[in-house]
Amino acid sequence: MADSGRNLRQGYALLSPTLGVVGLALAAPMALLLLTSLKTQTGTGFESGWTLAQYGEVLGRDSYRILFARSLAIAGLVTLLTVALAYPMAYFVAFHTRRKFLWLIVLTIPFWTSYLLRVFAWKIILGYGGVINSGLLGLGLIGEPLSFLLYNPFSVVVTLAHAWAAFAILPIYVSLEKIDRSLLEAASDLGDGALRRFARITLPLSMPGVIGAAILIFVPTTGDFVTPELVGGPAGAMIANIIEVQFSQVGNWPLGAALALVSMLMVAVIAGLFVAAARAAAKAIR
Amino acid sequence: MKSSRLLFGYALAYLAFLYVPVLVLPLFSLNNSAFIAFPLAGFTTRWYAGLADSALQHALVNSLKVGIATALISTLLGLTAARAVTRYRLRGANAALGVISLPLFIPDIVLGISLLLLLGTLGLPLSLASVVLGHLLICVPFSLTVLIARFEGFDRNLEEASADLGEDGWMTFWRVTLPLMLPGIVASLLLTFITSFDEFLVAYFLSGTEATLPVYIWSQLRFPARLPMVLALGTLILAVSVVLVIFAEKLRNQGVKKPVVGA
After folding, report:
1. How many alpha carbons lie under 13 Å from residue A203 in its C-beta half-sphere?
2. For chain B, where are the alpha helices, taking DSSP H only?
3. Residue B252 pLDDT grade (very low, low, confident, very high; cuts 50, 70, 90)
4. Smallest Cα–Cα separation from B201: which of B140, B252, B125, B138?
5. How far apart are CA B181 and CA B150, in angstroms?
6. Does B6 score more than 80 pLDDT?
7. Among the partner residues A12, A14, A225, nearest to B83 by beta-carbon distance
8. Which of A77, A186, A223, B146 is positioned for an S-S bond with B109, CB 3.0–4.6 A?
9. Which fold has domain B57-220?
């Protein structure tokens, strides 16, 4: 297929509006974020000079380091848990049911209400006077409400794993569904048992779905402040809570910008490493 | 078939995990008590009367506007870009796709505050338009993914056949390309509308005084007295969505014949 010059021009003309809009809407704000992070806040404005003071603050303070570590740990754990729980479910729909479409609809209905309310539902369930506690009290199983259910990293992980489940089920299902069934038959004919066949054919071929799901979940959960604010309490606070505060109440935009840039870089590096590692692993198994 | 039954059991347990927390919303939205706890205090529909709130309805209309604008623009931008990279062999196409997909790797809160900085620097007011801009960054990668998948399964011989049979470019697009692309376009519109309609973080920073529905809900979560009404709202959104899904599925089954080619 040799495209003539005129054809190529057509192609670039088709591509350029999208590239222009997304590129500009990304590059200009990111440049400003970087410039802002090199300033110092004075009252409602910035000081005129440039400084790396914000980065010293962000990387130097223990409280920020704890928040960064906790955010990445929570997001990592949520990603792992959500993908691990969703995989058998997606596998069941792809290989063991006839009415796949019905199953997919039934699986996605819980996600058809507001994200905020799905998160809030867990506050109602786990709270001190909430569903679990009032239920157990009513049954006489406990003498006083359990206070360890809510406001800790655990409640954040459970809530996020529930809120993002659809983002794991669907990509994994799609990649499982694409697998050529004759490959599985061939593996069986050549003497592979069910487990070996799964490890050597199904799992590696479904890796694109697993990787996609992991990125779709890890990136946004690292930057979520809704869930930690509603169910995290002080012990479950994450980095986005601090960023949000800088841009609303306290109003230290340069510090907020530096925090945002550092967390963005961390997420990008970890996501990149993960994709590379997962691809290498999938290749190694085969 | 033992593994099959084991998986079926797992599937049921998983469904319970997905459904039980969400069913809390309708259950307590019909409960005759301002406190959200057991034991249930009898049936009432009074919380649903609280939905006749003008701020809520204004926020709903705002969300519909933003969702529709985002879905249309995002799908259009996705269509042209997907067409460009699947139809032509462009140098740098992969780099361009990388740039367009970049927002997938950036936490939404960072997109929100960086756009807030941009609007502040340019002296532009926060408005629904700024929310649409933010939502476009999130949604265009989704549109692009859906539409590229559709274009890749697309038989170009059909377009050539149409040209050979004497149709001009416009008629070929109208009678061949568009009908074949329609399922992809509908999927992209739906996905981006839902994403935008439910998006909170970016809207929180960019909506200014024009709250979208999630921003309105967030403002209400602080007041315990408003909670049963918020649960009623969540229940209603869920119910409307379920009816729409069932309706769409009915249409899909009895409506247009599936295209035999290009699937």
Report:
1. 17
2. 2-29, 46-49, 54-87, 93-101, 108-122, 128-152, 156-164, 169-172, 178-198, 201-206, 213-220, 227-254
3. low
4. B138
5. 7
6. yes
7. A14
8. A223
9. MetI-like fold (1.10.3720)
CA B73/CA A115 separation, integer angstroms: 23
d(CA A115, CA A165): 12
> How many beta-carbon pairs under 8 angstroms link A with B?
231
Label residue A286 by pLDDT band (50, 70, 90).
Answer: low
When pLDDT is cut at 50, 70 and 90, the band that residue B253 belongs to is low
Reported as a single tens digit per residue, the pLDDT across B52-106 is: 888 999 999 999 999 999 999 999 999 999 989 888 888 888 899 999 999 999 9
User: In chain B, where are the structural domains located?
Assistant: 16-49+227-263, 57-220
Read off the pLDDT of residues B149-203 as tens digits, 9 standing for 90 and up. 888 877 778 888 888 888 877 888 888 888 888 888 988 998 899 999 999 999 9
Average pLDDT over residues B143-150: 89
Chain B nearest C-alpha distance from A13 (Å): 8
Q: Which tokens in the block code for residue A222?
A: 């690292």
Of A29, A105, A131, the CB nearest to B38: A131
Place of tokens 């009074």: B46
The contacts of residue B237 (CB under 8 Å, 6+ apart) are A112, A113, A114, A117
Beta-bridge partner residues of A46 = A41
- A71 touches A263 (CB < 8 A): yes
CA-CA-CA-CA dihedral for A231, A236, A237, A240, to nearest 10? -80
Question: What is the rounded average pLDDT of the residues A5-20?
Answer: 86
Beta-ladder partners of A42 = A45
Q: Which residue has the tokens 């997606």?
A: A90
Answer whether A223 sits within 8 Å of B110, measured CB to CB. Answer: yes
| CATH 1.10.10.60 given to domain A54-113+154-285 | no
